[in-house]
Amino acid sequence: MSSNQSSDSVPTREVARRVFAREFNDASYTFKESDDERAPLYLLLPTGERANRVLVVGTLTETEDVGDESEYWRGRIVDPTGTFFVYAGQYQPEAANTLRDLETPAYVSIVGKPRTYETDDGTVNVSLRPESITAVDAGTRDRWVAETAQQTLERIQHLDDEGNEYGRMAKEQYDLPPDEYRTTALSALESLDESDSSPDTPTQSTESVSDPQ
């Protein structure tokens, strides 16, 4: 099991997990590890890791103000495996401003918290509430894909390890073969070889893919 670099007992930020859209959208189970109302809410990833925060990098392809009485921005971010949806309103003013101002398509890096919503038919949709949205370049996107593939494969490798509590939970909660995520990760790596690193609109930033603390 991956070590968690923060403690629930102190007010430090959780590590932002790297996860592809395919796995993120398959995740539906959330949990807390204490009865404290301020305890972190975790999304259980099917490859056997908990995620209170995630780091994603992809192409922002669409933005739309879907609010009624006030601005509430929705962004669509695409990675090699699927689509993330991010929502930002009055409580995420900087992220909302970024979604309003960015011209699409553009590469972006997003750190945010997973949010789940159950529809009337019982389907669980997963989205991101952003802490930050930053324009990045193609190289940053490519590094994120490589790092996320590596971490996904490592989670799968340790899924059945003795003592991997979140691996056990994932097998109990999800009827999803881990080989699907292995294939997804390897296909994402292959997509880097096929990419010309300039799919649409490169952006001005050359920041590394890091988790702002």
Automatic annotation (TrEMBL):
Residues 189-213 are annotated as: Disordered. It comes from the Archaea. Residues 198-213 have a biased composition (Low complexity). This is RPA family protein. The lineage of its organism: Archaea, Methanobacteriati, Methanobacteriota, Stenosarchaea group, Halobacteria.
